[in-house]
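Key result, reporting period 2: structure in, sequence out.
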């Protein structure tokens, strides 16, 4: 399950989405994120789903690969839905069984938050699946360039965020290996009380932390060996070029977000 998480992975390709400027993709995802948490209109959220599906089709991402990657994410979405379902006590009482009560407000809020999370992860995954680590770092750095005037280390920040994103599948892959190794030694993570299950997780966390620090140290050593010394004075082999297609994509997302917000307030 941990091996197929799609956030942080990159699939080489020559699709329309692959060819977009990373700044356009970052900007579109940022606008999409703001829109998701500003609107509750069912029609606008349905259009957002169509927009996400269209983006994935244009990116040429294999559907089976996407489904495999969403299995672990589905558990997080389900947990979020159940949390809002049982913690929100607003609206009409839908189900009552002793201490277990479900209200219509919980159903609506849980479904809305789960749906937003699904769309957000889908679009964030599309960003990393179609953008190389170098382009992602360059795009973030260029977008944060105005902050350099107030002495913010934009290159280092962009590099940190890019490495963090790319580290997700690596970390989850290590988790999967450790879990399989512990199960081969007789560990059982699916039986027993909650306390026993929590105790069984400890043998996973310790080697996972050790491996994480080791990988971070190896990465730092590799960067030093290649002469990396921060962003000041660095030149770029490949320059980003903004195209008409990038402008069209940004306009589409901005107009969609503005229309969705205005339709909620004025229509």
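The corresponding designed sequence is given below.
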């Amino acid at each position: 399950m941990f091996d197929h998480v799609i956030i942080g992975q990159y699939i080489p390709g020559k699709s329309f989405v692959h060819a977009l400027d990373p700044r356009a993709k970052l900007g579109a995802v940022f606008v999409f994120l703001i829109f998701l948490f500003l609107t509750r209109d069912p029609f606008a959220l349905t259009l957002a789903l169509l927009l996400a599906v269209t983006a994935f089709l244009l990116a040429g991402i294999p559907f089976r690969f996407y489904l495999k990657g969403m299995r672990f994410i589905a558990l997080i979405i389900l947990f979020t839905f159940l949390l809002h379902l049982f913690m929100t006590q607003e609206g009409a009482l839908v189900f009552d069984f002793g201490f277990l009560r479900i209200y219509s407000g919980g159903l609506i809020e849980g479904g809305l938050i789960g749906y937003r999370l699904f769309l957000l992860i889908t679009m964030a995954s599309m960003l990393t699946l179609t953008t190389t680590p170098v382009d992602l770092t360059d795009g973030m750095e260029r977008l944060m360039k105005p902050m350099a005037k107030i002495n913010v280390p934009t290159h280092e920040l962009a590099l940190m965020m890019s490495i963090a994103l790319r580290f997700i599948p690596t970390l989850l892959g290590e988790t999967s290996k450790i879990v399989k190794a512990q199960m081969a030694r007789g560990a059982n993570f699916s039986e027993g009380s909650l306390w026993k299950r929590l105790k069984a997780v400890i043998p996973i966390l310790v080697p996972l932390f050790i491996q994480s620090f080791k990988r971070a140290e190896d990465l730092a050593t590799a960067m030093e060996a290649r002469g990396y010394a921060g962003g000041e004075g660095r030149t770029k082999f490949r320059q980003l070029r903004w195209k008409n297609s990038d402008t069209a994509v940004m306009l589409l997302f901005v107009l969609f977000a503005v229309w969705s917000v205005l339709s909620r307030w004025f229509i």
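The chain has two domains: 1-155+242-267, 167-229. The longest strand covers residues 93-97. This case is discussed further under Risks and Mitigation.
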